[in-house]
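To the structural biology subgroup,

Please find below the input and predicted structure for Nucleotide-binding universal stress protein, UspA family, which we are adding to the shared reference set this quarter. The sequence is reproduced verbatim from the submission form. If anyone notices a discrepancy with their own records, reply to this email rather than editing the shared folder directly, so we keep one authoritative version.
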Amino acid sequence: MYRKILITTDGSAVSNMTACAGVKFAQQMGAEVLALFVAPEYQYPIYVEIIPPSYPSEEEYRAAMQRAGADHVRPILESCERKGVPCSGMTAFAESTAQKIVDVAGQHGCDLIFMGSHGRSGWGQLLLGSVTNKVLSHSKLPVLVHRLLKEPLPD
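Predicted structure (tokenized):
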């Protein structure tokens, strides 16, 4: 039914548990997985004329976020490997996380987006998380929203 499933992660415990469920779903469907972490674009300091010496350059920031992204998608890649599910991972940069998720899914030929009902902003929200809600409203692809039944232990 599904051939390629995009599984999103923000690196939180909630997101990791959702990703595990996504890998299991992909295994059941016989689908390939694309694991995605979306990092925020580099933000210049408000007072560009006075850049603090400890403020990272754009290159340093992007390298650090690529490392963080690799760390965040690693559990998905490892889970796929254990279950025999073909998988690749990537880090993308965007101002709008939701729009980037939709764009990447389309660009990479995904036919389903699998994501959690909440991410890092988490359990305090009564309704869907803002990124999930925006993906649902912008995506022409099916979106499977996974809701955890209990809160995971803190990171």
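Summary notes: The helical segments are 13-29, 58-83, 97-107, 130-138. Residues 58-83 form the longest helix (26 residues).

Regards,
Lab coordination
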